[in-house]
Structure formats: C-alpha cells, structure tokens
Amino acid sequence: AAKKLPGVRELFRKAAPERAKRTRFEMMKGVDADYYGYRDDDDGVLVALESAVEQEKLEQSISAWEQAKRERLKANPDDIPEEDDDVDESANKFVAHVQVPDQRVIEQALLSRRKREMLAMLGGAVEEEQAEAAPLVPSSW
Question: How do the residues of the chain divide into helix, strand and coil, expressed in percent and rounded to 5?
C-alpha cells in the first residue's frame, strides 16, 4: 500500500539509462569490403547486367560511327577514305634523306679519333692526312 503513495513510486522506478556515445572504433567495426561495394560482383549478377549494357553501348557507338561516315561521304563524295586493310606497305617504309653510316664505319671513326687523342696526349704529332681522312662521321660523335 505504501507503493501507491504519491512520490514513492518515483523512488522505486529506475532511471532510464543514458545512451552512451558510440566510439569511432564501434562505428568502424561494421565497415568492411561489403560496405564499400568491393564484393558486389562476386555473385555474378552484375556480370550479366554489365555485359548486356556493354553490348548495347558498343552497337550504339558503331551505328553512330557509321552514320557519321555516311554523312561525311554525302558532304564530300570525292573524299574516299582508305581502308585499314588496304594499307600500302611502302608507306611504312623508312627513307633516310641523309647518308647513315653503318656500324663498321662508326667503329673505324671512333678508333681513329681515339688514336689522335692518345697521340695528342702523349705529345706526338698528328699528320694532316690522317685528320682529314678520318671524318667519315660528324665530329659531334
């Protein structure tokens, strides 16, 4: 009967616990690869959806390219583009417009240059004929 007196009931009632603030660790505990979506394609559902969309986008881009090509040919019918399959191999052939020395000539020029440098270092006289005969390769080499 004393429990029913005013103010006594509030004394026996427990206070509601205060909600504790979550720590950073508690919040990050549930974050894993699934949270970021790294394992979304493991079940194979996305592969089928993406392949269908990829095929559709490929067909759209091919049709847009063909449409642009037709419009370009309508605008300038004299401009007939070369197909990639009919590329002439002579177009890819390298043509040197200057005389390119081969390996033997380069080795001879380096050897004669080293000989002249050694003779000059040792105090020997370099003959004019050797100096003029040697420049088969530019002096910058």
Answer: 55, 0, 45
- Residue 23: its pLDDT value, please? 92
Sign of CA dihedral 102, 104, 105, 111: positive
What number is the average pLDDT over the span 43-65?
92
Contact 103, 109 (CB under 8 A): no
How many helices, marked H, and strands, marked E, lie in the chain?
A: 6, 0
Q: Is the pLDDT confidence value at 35 over 70?
A: yes
Going from the C-alpha of 107 to that of each of 61, 110, 127, 132, the distances in angstroms are 55, 5, 20, 17
The residue behind tokens 């005013």 is 6
Tokens of 13: 């009632």
- At 104, give phi and psi (nearest 5°): -65, -45
Where is pLDDT greater, at 133 or 103?
Answer: 103
pLDDT range class, residue 124, cuts 50, 70, 90:
low
Q: What pLDDT is stored for residue 129 in this prediction?
A: 47
Strand locations in the chain (E): none
Enumerate residues 6+ apart whose C-beta is below 8 A from 8.
2
